[in-house]
C-alpha cells in the first residue's frame, strides 16, 4: 500500500514549518546569552531598534508590558540569572534575516559570568555513597522501596555492583524548529511544526498569560519529531515579537541553535547493585544521578518515571530506587524518543548480562527466569497485562543460536537485550468523524510527524470499524480553534489512545446508520461508484439516502468519540519521596545485535540486527515494521556514535552534523524485524504503541555483543572507537 | 555585510584582481565548500570573493608522468574517472573520504591546497606523492612543492596576488590512504595516513593528517622503511617511530595517546596492504 | 559589479538572477526567492544532504553553492523531477517501497539517487550506490526502505 502522504511529499508540495511564508512577514532572531552561567547587568535594546530594517525588539520589559499576566516562574527571558549558553535574553524582528542578525549584534549586553556547572559528578564527587540532596541544584528527588533489602544483601551469594554512564543525545529531526506567528484582532495565531498543537496552545496560554481560546495553533507537516517538537519552544517568542511588531513574524532555528538550545537527553550516571542467591535475583538497589539541565524545581518529569526502567521488567525481590535530578548549565532536559529508556536499558541490560556471565548462566536464560509474565505485579504495584517479553526472548535466543551456528567470524559477537515501555500514558483525546457521500473524514488538529500514526494508523482504525476501503478515508487537518482536542503525537499513544477515540466515533457512526436502516444485523460501509453504501445483510442503501437535509448541507453525518487512557494506581506505600507514574499497558521488545570489532582501533560496527516487538496487534504491519527499522537505526546512533560534547566552559563543542554523528545509510546493517501478536494491549483491536519501544534495547544489545566479542565491558555510551580501544587496552 | 563575487574569464584578469586587493579583503573560491562555512560562522568576512569558475582550470589530464588537476576541477570528476583508482589508488581513497558525493561535486583539490586545513583528507596523500603546485601571479608562473607551500597552518606560502592554477601528481607504483573516524561515512578523520610505494628511493613515502598545524611528511618513518621489502621488525620500528614522533594533541575528536596508537596501526596496515598488492598471488 | 547575468534554467524554465546578491546560496534563491520550497533546508553546512539538487544533472549541495557561481546552469529540483525519466522511476520506487516517513529528507534523497543513477548508470554496484547515498541523512526510516527503493530504481532502469 502506498502511504497516503507519499505523493505530496515526493512532489515537493508538502509545506513544513520551515517553508512557511506570509505577506509582510518579518524575520525573528534571538539575542543569545554569551555565557552559560551568570547575571545580566545591562540589556539595552535601543541600539538594536535603530538598526535599519528592525521593527521590534523584545526583552523582559516588553514581556511585562505586552503580556502582563505572563508566567512569572517561567519568564521567556530571564531578568537576572542566566542558565545556559545561548539562552534567549531578548529577541528582535526585522525585514530580513541579515537585518535581524545585525540587530542582535547591536544589542548592548553586559553579563557577569560565573563558573558553569557542566558535570553532575563534579558537584557530588562522593555520590552514591553520600547523598546528592540538599543543594539548591537538586530539582527532583525520588525514592521508593519495598521488601527487606538489607536482608537480601546480607544473605546473598553474590552482590554484583556496577556504575554506568551515558551521554547527551539529540533528536536530530532533519527539519529545524520553525514557526510563523501573528497577533491580530485579539487572536494570537501561530502556524508551527509541532507534535502537539494543543500542547502548544496550552503552553502559550500559560507562558504569556493569554486565555487559551484566544490562542490558535495550526500545524504543518512535521519534518521529524522524536520528542523534540513535543511542547512549545519558539512559538511564544514568535507571538511576543508579532505582538510587538504588529506584523507576522517568522522564527526559525539554525541547525547550530538546534544543538545549542535543544531540549534533549542529557547525561546520567547509574549505580546498580544486585543481590543473587541460588542463581536468582533477591534484591536490587538502583541509584540515578540525572543531569537535568536548566530544568526548574517541580518541572522535572524524567527522574520518577525513568528510574523504574532500572529495576527492569524483572522480578527482583526487595528493592530500593533513588534518583536525583540536578540543575546544570545546559538547556532544560527534554524528551527524546522513549526518554531515557535506552540509556537505562543500556545500564540495566549490560549489568544483567555481566551478572549472568559471572554466574555462568546463559544471559537469555537468566532473563527468562526473571521476566514479568502476565499477572505479575511491578515494583510500583501495577499489574502486568498481556506481555510478550518471554516470547520475544525465546525467539531472540533461537535466532542468536542460528546466527552463532552460521559462523560469525572472529572478532564478531552477539548480544541480546530487553526493553519495555508503557503505552498507556493516560493522556487523552477526542475524535470527530464526518461521513459524507464520498467517504469518511477524520478531523484532526494533529499533524503527521512521519510515523504514519495519523495518516495511516487512525485511518486503519476507522477502516476496521466501518469496513470502508482506506482510499475512502482521509484525514482533514484543522487548527486548534475548530479541531477536536487531543494531547498530541508523542508517547507512542496516537493509535493507542486517539485511535480509541476514532474507534468510538466510528462505532457510533455505524450504530446511527444501523438505526436509520432499521437493521439489527451488523452494518458496514462500502464504496460503489465513488459513493458510500451502507450494507447490512442483504440490505443496501446509499448513504446519501440516510442523511438528513442538514447533514447533507454540512457535508455528512458527524460523530465524536473520546478516550482518556488509564494510568495507575501505583502502590503509594512503596513511595518514600517524589513523584512516580503509574504508566501501564506494557509492551516488550528484545534486540539481538551482531557486531564486528576492530580490537586495535576500537571500531565497532553492527553487522546485523534483529528486533522482536510485542505489538499486541499490528494494524498496519508495513508502518509498524518501518517504526522498528527507524528505531533500531536511531538506537545504533545512541550506541555507537552520538554524543553531545560539552566543554568545561559550558559550551557545546560539537553543535553540528559533522561532529554530532547520526548513522548514515552505511552504518545501518541488514535488519530483521519480527512483530509479535497475541499479547493484546489496550489500544484499538488490541494494538500497542510502537513509536518508541524499538530504540530501547538497541544500545544494550550492541554493548552486550561487544562484550561477547572481546570480553570487555564498556560502561559508558557511546561505544565510540577510542572508548572501546581504551577498554580493550589502556592507552 | 555580504561580498561581491568576481568572476574573471581569463587568468591575467584573475591575477590582476587578486593583486589589486588589500590584504584580507579578498578570498578565493574554488569550490567554496570550506570557505562558505567559514563565512557563515563569521570566521572570515571577505568583501570580495574571486571565483575560479570561468578560468580554464576546470579539468584534469593524464600524461606520461602523472596527473595534472586544474584547481577548479571538482573532486567528483576525478573519482568518476576510472583511471584514477587504477593509477593513483591512494588519491582515489582520499577523495572518497571527503564529505559526500554532493559535496565533492563542488569541492576541489585546489581549494584543499589553498585552505590548507590540518584535518584535510587530501593533503596527506598529495604530500606523499610529492605533488607539485603550479602557481600564477603578478611575477608569472612558478612551480612549488606542496610541502613548501604548506609551510604554515591554514596559510599557504603564496605571494600577494598569486593563485593556485593546478596540482601535478606523479604516478607511482602504488599508494593507499587510510583513516580512522568515529563514524566511517562522512566524518572528519581523527587520523589519516597516506603511504606511497615507489620503485625508486625512497621506496616508501609517508604522510600524516589529523595533526595540528598542518599535514606532515614523516621522513624519519620513511628512513626506517629503507628497503623495498621491509622486514616485519623494520615495519614495527617504523610504526613505533610514527606513533612516537608525530606532534599529536588531544582535541574533541580524539586524544593524543589514541592518535599515536592509531597512526602506528594505520601505517602498519597500509604498508602490509601495499606489500600484499605488490606480490602476485601464487596460483 | 553590475553585469548582465545569464540566469538559471530551473526545471526547464529560465529564471533570471537579476537582483540576486552575489553571496546568496542557491538554496535561498530557490526557496526564498522562487518559493520552490520542495528543496529542504537542513543543517546548511553540508552535513545532512536535505538541500541536494541537480546542477547539470549532478547531485549538488545547494546550501554550499552560490547562485551566481552556477549561472547559466540547468538546475533540477524535486518540483521538476516528474519531467525526468529517471526521476519518475525513482519517485515511483520511493512510493512503492514506502521509502519515506516525515518526508523532510526525501527530496534530497530522490535528487541524490537520480543524479547517481545518471552519473554511474544502472549497472552501478548496489554497494557503490548505497555508499554514495551516505551524505543524505534520514532519521526516520533506518534507511531500510530507502535501500529497497534504490535497488528497485536501479533494476527498473537496468
Give the strand content of chain A: 25-35%
The pLDDT mean of chain C sits at: 95
CATH topology of the largest domain in chain C: DNA polymerase, domain 1
Q: Count the DSSP helices of chain C.
A: 5
**Low-pLDDT windows of residues of chain A:** none
| Helix segment tally of chain A | 21
Spatially, the strands of the biggest sheet of chain C line up as 2-1-5-3-4
Q: Show unreliable segments of chain C.
A: none
- What proportion of the residues of chain C is helical, as a percent range? 25-40%
**Termini Cα gap of chain A:** 53 Å
The biggest chain-chain interface is: A-C, 55 and 52 residues
Going by CATH, the architecture of the largest domain in chain A would be 2-Layer Sandwich
Name the CATH architecture of the largest domain in chain C: Orthogonal Bundle
Helix content of chain A: 25-40%
Biggest sheet of chain A, open or closed, and with what strands and sense? 7 strands, mixed
Molecular structure report:
The complex is a heterotrimer of chains A (731), B (283) and C (158). Chain A is α+β, with helices and mostly antiparallel strands and 731 residues long. Chain A has 21 helices and 27 strands. In chain A, helix 19 (621-640) crosses helix 20 (698-710). Helices cover 35% and strands 22% of the residues of chain B. Chain B has twelve helices and twelve strands. Helix content of chain C is 36%, strand content 11%. Chain C has helices at 26-33, 85-97, 106-120, 126-132, 144-157, and strands at 8-10, 13-15, 52-55, 58-61, 74-76. Chain C starts with 7 loop residues before the first strand and ends with a helix. The model of chain C has no long low-confidence stretch (mean pLDDT 95).
Question: Could you list some keywords that capture this structure?
Answer:
heterotrimer, B: alpha+beta, five-stranded antiparallel beta sheet, 12 helices, 22% strand, globular, C: 158 residues, alpha+beta, Ubiquitin-like (UB roll), DNA polymerase, domain 1, five-stranded mixed beta sheet, 5 strands, 36% helix
Quick recap of the structure?
The complex is a heterotrimer of chains A (731), B (283) and C (158). Chain A has 731 residues and is α+β, with helices and mostly antiparallel strands.
Amino acid at each position: 500500500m502506498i502511504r497516503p502522504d507519499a505523493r505530496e511529499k515526493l512532489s515537493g508540495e508538502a509545506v513544513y514549518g520551515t517553508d512557511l511564508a506570509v505577506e509582510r512577514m518579518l524575520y525573528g532572531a534571538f539575542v543569545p546569552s554569551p555565557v552559560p552561567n551568570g547575571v545580566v547587568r545591562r540589556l539595552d535594546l535601543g541600539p538594536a531598534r535603530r538598526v535599519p530594517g528592525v521593527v521590534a525588539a523584545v526583552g523582559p520589559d516588553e514581556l511585562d508590558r505586552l503580556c502582563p499576566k505572563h508566567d512569572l516562574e517561567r519568564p521567556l527571558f530571564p531578568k537576572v540569572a542566566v542558565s545556559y549558553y545561548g539562552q534567549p535574553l531578548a529577541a528582535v524582528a526585522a525585514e530580513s534575516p541579515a537585518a535581524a542578525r545585525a540587530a542582535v549584534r547591536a544589542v548592548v549586553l553586559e553579563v557577569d559570568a560565573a563558573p558553569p556547572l557542566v558535570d553532575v559528578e563534579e558537584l557530588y564527587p562522593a555520590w552514591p555513597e553520600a547523598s546528592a540532596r540538599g543543594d539548591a541544584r537538586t530539582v527532583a528527588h525520588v525514592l521508593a522501596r519495598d521488601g527487606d533489602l538489607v536482608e537480601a544483601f546480607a544473605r546473598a551469594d553474590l552482590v554484583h555492583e556496577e556504575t554506568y554512564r551515558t551521554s547527551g543525545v539529540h533528536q536530530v529531526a532533519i527539519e529545524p524548529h520553525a514557526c510563523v506567528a501573528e497577533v491580530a484582532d485579539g487572536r494570537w495565531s501561530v502556524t508551527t511544526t509541532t507534535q502537539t498543537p494543543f500542547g502548544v496552545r496550552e503552553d502559550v496560554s500559560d507562558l504569556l498569560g493569554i486565555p487559551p481560546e484566544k490562542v490558535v495553533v495550526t500545524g504543518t507537516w512535521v519534518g521529524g519529531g522524536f520528542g523534540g517538537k513535543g511542547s512549545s519552544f519558539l512559538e511564544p517568542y514568535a507571538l511576543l515579537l508579532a505582538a510587538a511588531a504588529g506584523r507576522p513574524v517568522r522564527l526559525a532555528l539554525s541547525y547550530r541553535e538546534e544543538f545549542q538550545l535543544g531540549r534533549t537527553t542529557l547525561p546520567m550516571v547509574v549505580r546498580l547493585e544486585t543481590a543473587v542467591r541460588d542463581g536468582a535475583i533477591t534484591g536490587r538497589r538502583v541509584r540515578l544521578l540525572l543531569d537535568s539541565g536548566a530544568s526548574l524545581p517541580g518541572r522535572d518529569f524524567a527522574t520518577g518515571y525513568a528510574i523504574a526502567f532500572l529495576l527492569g521488567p524483572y522480578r527482583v525481590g526487595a528493592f530500593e530506587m533513588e534518583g536525583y535530578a540536578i540543575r546544570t548549565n545546559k538547556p532544560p532536559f527534554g524528551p527524546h524518543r522513549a526518554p531515557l529508556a535506552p540509556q537505562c536499558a543500556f545500564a540495566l541490560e549490560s549489568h544483567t548480562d555481566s551478572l549472568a556471565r559471572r554466574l555462568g548462566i546463559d544471559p537469555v536464560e537468566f532473563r527468562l527466569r526473571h521476566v514479568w509474565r502476565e499477572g505479575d505485579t511491578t515494583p510500583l504495584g501495577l499489574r502486568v497485562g498481556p506481555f510478550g517479553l518471554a516470547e520475544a526472548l525465546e525467539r531472540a535466543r533461537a535466532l542468536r543460536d542460528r546466527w552463532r551456528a552460521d559462523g560469525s567470524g572472529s572478532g564478531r559477537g552477539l548480544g541480546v537485550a530487553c526493553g519495555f515501555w508503557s503505552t498507556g500514558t493516560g493522556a487523552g483525546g477526542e475524535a470527530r468523524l464526518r461521513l459524507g457521500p464520498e467517504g469518511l473524514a477524520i478531523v484532526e488538529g494533529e499533524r503527521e510527524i512521519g510515523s504514519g500514526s495519523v495518516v495511516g494508523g487512525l485511518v486503519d482504525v476507522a477502516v476496521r470499524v466501518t469496513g470502508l476501503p482506506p482510499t475512502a478515508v482521509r484525514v482533514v487537518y484543522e487548527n486548534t480553534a475548530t479541531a477536536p482536542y487531543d494531547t498530541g503525537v508523542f508517547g507512542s499513544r496516537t493509535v493507542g489512545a486517539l485511535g480509541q477515540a476514532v474507534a468510538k466515533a466510528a462505532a457510533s457512526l455505524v450504530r446511527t446508520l444501523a438505526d436509520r436502516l432499521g437493521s439489527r444485523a451488523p452494518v458496514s460501509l462500502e464504496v460503489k461508484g465513488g459513493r458510500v453504501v451502507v450494507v447490512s445483510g442483504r440490505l443496501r442503501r446509499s448513504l446519501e439516502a440516510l442523511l438528513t437535509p442538514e447533514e447533507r448541507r454540512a457535508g455528512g453525518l458527524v460523530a465524536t468519540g473520546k478516550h482518556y487512557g488509564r494510568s495507575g494506581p501505583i502502590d503509594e506505600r512503596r513511595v518514600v519521596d517524589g513523584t512516580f507514574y503509574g504508566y501501564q499497558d506494557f509492551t516488550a521488545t528484545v534486540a539481538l545485535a551482531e557486531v564486528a570489532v576492530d580490537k586495535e582501533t576500537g571500531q565497532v560496527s553492527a553487522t546485523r540486527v534483529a528486533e522482536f516487538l510485542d505489538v499486541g496487534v499490528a494494524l498496519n504491519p508495513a508502518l509498524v515494521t518501518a517504526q522498528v527499522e527507524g528505531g533500531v537505526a536511531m538506537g545504533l546512533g545512541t550506541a555507537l556514535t552520538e554524543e553531545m560534547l560539552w566543554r568545561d566552559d559550558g559550551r557545546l563543542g560539537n553543535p553540528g552534523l559533522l561532529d554530532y554523528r547520526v548513522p548514515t545509510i552505511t552504518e545501518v546493517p541488514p535488519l530483521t524485524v519480527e512483530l509479535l501478536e497475541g499479547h493484546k494491549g489496550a489500544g484499538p483491536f488490541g494494538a500497542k504503541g510502537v513509536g518508541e519501544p524499538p530504540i530501547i534495547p538497541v544500545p544494550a544489545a550492541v554493548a552486550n555483543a561487544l562484550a561477547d566479542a572481546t570480553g570487555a565491558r564498556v560502561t559508558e555510551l557511546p561505544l565510540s572507537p577510542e572508548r572501546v580501544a581504551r577498554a580493550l587496552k589502556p592507552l | 555585510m555580504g561580498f561581491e563575487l568576481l568572476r574573471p574569464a581569463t587568468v591575467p584578469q584573475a591575477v590582476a584582481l587578486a593583486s589589486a586587493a588589500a590584504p584580507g579583503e579578498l578570498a578565493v573560491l574554488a569550490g567554496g565548500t570550506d570557505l562558505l562555512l567559514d563565512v557563515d560562522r563569521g570566521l572570515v568576512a571577505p568583501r570580495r570573493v574571486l571565483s575560479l569558475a570561468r578560468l580554464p582550470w576546470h579539468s584534469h589530464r593524464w600524461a606520461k608522468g602523472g596527473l595534472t588537476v586544474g584547481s577548479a576541477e571538482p573532486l567528483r570528476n576525478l573519482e568518476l574517472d576510472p583511471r584514477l583508482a587504477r593509477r593513483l589508488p591512494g588519491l582515489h581513497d582520499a577523495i572518497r573520504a571527503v564529505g559526500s558525493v554532493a559535496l565533492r561535486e563542488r569541492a576541489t583539490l585546489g581549494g584543499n591546497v589553498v585552505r590548507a586545513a590540518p584535518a584535510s583528507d587530501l593533503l596527506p596523500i598529495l604530500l606523499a606523492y610529492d605533488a607539485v603546485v603550479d602557481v600564477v601571479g603578478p611575477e608569472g608562473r612558478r612551480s612549488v612543492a606542496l610541502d613548501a607551500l604548506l609551510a604554515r597552518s591554514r596559510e599557504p606560502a603564496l605571494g600577494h596576488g598569486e593563485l593556485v592554477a593546478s596540482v601535478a601528481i606523479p604516478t607511482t607504483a602504488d599508494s593507499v590512504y587510510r583513516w580512522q573516524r568515529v563514524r566511517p561515512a562522512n566524518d572528519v578523520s581523527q587520523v589519516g595516513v597516506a603511504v606511497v610505494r615507489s620503485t625508486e628511493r625512497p621506496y616508501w613515502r609517508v604522510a600524516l593528517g589529523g595533526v595540528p598545524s598542518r599535514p606532515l611528511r614523516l621522513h624519519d618513518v620513511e628512513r626506517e622503511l629503507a628497503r623495498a621489502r621491509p622486514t616485519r621488525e623494520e615495519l614495527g620500528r617504523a610504526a613505533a617511530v610514527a606513533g612516537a614522533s608525530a606532534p599529536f594533541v588531544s582535541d574533541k575528536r580524539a586524544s593524543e595517546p589514541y592518535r599515536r596508537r592509531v597512526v602506528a596501526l594505520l601505517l602498519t596496515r597500509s604498508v602490509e596492504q601495499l606489500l600484499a598488492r605488490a606480490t602476485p598471488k601464487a596460483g | 559589479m553590475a553585469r548582465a547575468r545569464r540566469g538559471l534554467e530551473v526545471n526547464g524554465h529560465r529564471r533570471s538572477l537579476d537582483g540576486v546578491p552575489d553571496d546568496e546560496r542557491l538554496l535561498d534563491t530557490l526557496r526564498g526567492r522562487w518559493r520552490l520550497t520542495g528543496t529542504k533546508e537542513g543543517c546548511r553546512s553540508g552535513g545532512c544532504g536535505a538541500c541536494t539538487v541537480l546542477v547539470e544533472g549532478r547531485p549538488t549541495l545547494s546550501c554550499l553553492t552560490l547562485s551566481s557561481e552556477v549561472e547559466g546552469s540547468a538546475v533540477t529540483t524535486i518540483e521538476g523531477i516528474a519531467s525526468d525519466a529517471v526521476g519518475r522511476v525513482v519517485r515511483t520506487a520511493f512510493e512503492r517501497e514506502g521509502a519515506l516517513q516525515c518526508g523532510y529528507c526525501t527530496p534530497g534523497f530522490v535528487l541524490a539517487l537520480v543524479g547517481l543513477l545518471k552519473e554511474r548508470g544502472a549497472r552501478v554496484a548496489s554497494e557503490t550506490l548505497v555508499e554514495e547515498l551516505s551524505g543524505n541523512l534520514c532519521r526516520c526510516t533506518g534507511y531500510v526502505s530507502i535501500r529497497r527503493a534504490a535497488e528497485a530504481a536501479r533494476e527498473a532502469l537496468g
